[in-house]
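Handoff note, outgoing to incoming analyst
You'll be picking up this chain. Sequence as last confirmed:
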Amino acid sequence: MIQQYEEKLLTLIDLMVETASDDELFAGGYLRGHISLSAAECERDGIASLEAMNQAVNDSLKNAQSELNPADQQLVKSLWLQLQQSAVESPS
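Most recent structure output, in case you need it:
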């Protein structure tokens, strides 16, 4: 379940590439690493809950806050929220 969710999120990022702004491309690329790392950790720990996966990404982003300036943090946070919503709304 986590792997399918990860794939859906990464596919949504890939689909943005042709129409995304430079900022959106940056945020998508940045999020890819956090999503993949969080999914791997959830799989390793036997966690199957999508809510737990979302929280793992949130925690990962929070722990890495110092890597980004406030504007980039907001950009990444906004895209992450959009991806979560789109992943839930789109068919599997």
